[in-house]
Amino acid sequence: MRFKTLILGTLFIFGLLLTSGISYGYERAIEAEMADAIEAPMEVADDADASGGQFVWMEGPPVTGGGGEGWVEYNLFIPEPGTYALWGKVIAWDGNSDSFWVTWQPADPDENAQETQNTEFRWGVAQSNEWHWDRINHWLDGGTFEREWEIEAAGDTTLRIAVREDACMLDVIYITDNLSEDEAEVNPRDPIPSDSLVPVEPQDKLATTWGKLKAGR
Ligand SMILES: [Ca+2]
Ligand SMILES: [Ca+2]
Q1: pTM here?
Q2: Dihedrals φ, ψ of 172, to 5°?
Q3: 213 contact partners, CB below 8 Å, separation of at least 6
Q4: What is the architecture, at CATH level 2, of domain 25-215?
Q5: Which of 20, 90, 110, 188 is most enclosed, with most CB atoms within 10 A?
């Protein structure tokens, strides 16, 4: 009798894990300017209205074309396998400054989207000239759909956000296993101290790289 109770109890707990295990409530926000690597002409810039007072972009006038070079990369430790969504806090002035390329390995292949122009990785950024949240989507030729990433094992991942059009600005990246497309439900937020277990510094050296590039022209 006691054994039967144990079995039933185990099954009950297993059932609870199954129903509640779909989402365990992971979330983390990181300042875009705290990138682990930055390739010019992507650079860190100042804005008093941005979280942390800084953001990243390829500098450029909004209405003209241009871009396709430079990126930021983030080494992100994901503690649990699962399905994740990304949100970006962005400014995109107009139709010539409203996209990035996004690849998140190992869920995505090791592919240079700036070279392949693979629309699977093309993020059509919601336009506004105020800082606002936009869930990272893929802007396919047949329509724009919210993206999600299957992270199959806990461990290190590499998120690359690459310039597609200059003047598109990125302030914060918010990582969550809440797959809702409703911003009010997900409630993406700016970083808080507990997001940074290991303190990191902004990549000041990138301004140097950019300066050298300009001087070399
Ligand atoms: Ca532009
Ligand atoms: Ca920021």
Answers
A1: 0.81
A2: -140, 145
A3: 40, 41
A4: Sandwich (2.60)
A5: 90
